[in-house]
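Z., the sequence and structure:
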Amino acid sequence: MRLHIIASAVLFGIGAATLAVSAEGEDANSREATFRQLELFGDVLSRIEADYVTDPDKAELIESAIDGMMEALDPHSSYLSPDDFQDMQVTTSGEYGGVGIEVTIRDDLITIISPIAETPGERAGLEPNDQIIAVDGESMIGASMDDAVERMRGLAGDPVVLTILREGEEDPFDVTVVRDLIEVRAAYWRMEEGDTPYLRITTFNENTTANAITGLNDLTEAYGGPLPGLILDLRSNPGGLLDQSVTVSSLFLDGGEVVSTRGRDPRDTRRYNAELGDMLNGAPIVVLINSGSASASEIVTGALQDRERATIVGMTSFGKGSMQTVVPLRGGRDGALRLTTARYYTPAGRTIQATGIAPDIAIAPRRVEQEEVEGVNTYAEASLRNALENETGAEREELENELSHTEMPPEDWDVSEDYQLYRAIEILNAMMSRDQAQLQ
């Protein structure tokens, strides 16, 4: 009987939503078909309650049904339980306990988007596209993202053993990571080779813009005057908050559009503009990206590229051109929905969904022989299950083709050195020299 009550509540909630949609023009046949499916859902729940070999956990059944419904949409829509919702709020505020990696699900395996800079995950050598097939010996094959994240988080100082499947390696191998309090510092900065300003943004949380401003001010002080240029490193930056991508872009633009978003209803189009005041006063910028640069980092890259404010260097970005809205349920007491509600577009009106942003100057981080990439799919948005298609029909360039016009390090290059950064410094120095020559 209790299960019938739960089912009725769920059916009423879904039915109410269905009626709301029907008010906007859904025909009677469609409504009838929807209610038949809701009846089927109730019948299945009743049959499980009556005949399943053990007494099932009713709440878990309902949550699993919701999870399945969200998974049928796209890779970035999901249901957050109350605990998961709280964890998400902690993560975006910039501090949590764990190993420091951004993950997703690819081919039913927990897959690393990127390790977060200066965290145990990065120090342990975890890489983008690594697949986590076990945590402390327990298989993660087919596990949900929530289960994997819960197992990897824990008390600072406690070790966790991740079993990694890495492309190019024949056998899985174990990596022991000592958990730490992950205080996600969103930006790092230094002078490269003595006098080349360098700013790395690792994520877009609530502190990103403030951290970036501090970094630019510190670099200005270290240089002893206005900066002559900047390397902005967004490699392996998985993204984050939309408003932070807009305010970071504003640091380098003097007004004008940064990004626009469009939902299912064309009337929902919104445009986000930069504030007046370029902190670099037009000095040249080189932006570094790779296939781990996603979402908010792609918004910044696209804005600076379309506005001809920066030269983009590296490899094609991840290709996540959608925006998610977190909708608390009953004020968060029942968790929340993370729902894809819009696509975003660069100032030139480009959608980069599933294609990514191609750099102005393509440079690989290491030498790759042709036979290494034949038939290999780049880990990117387009490779995720149920990923939204690019509405223009455009497809991501195959890695094999991309590498055919990509600069690679010399054969004798020391692999421990960052070739992309080395070349970015050369490119920026050439741009700064031209600016100086024009002033004379």
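Confidence is low (pLDDT under 50) at residues 1-25. The first strand starts at residue 78 and ends at 80.

Let me know what you think.
H.
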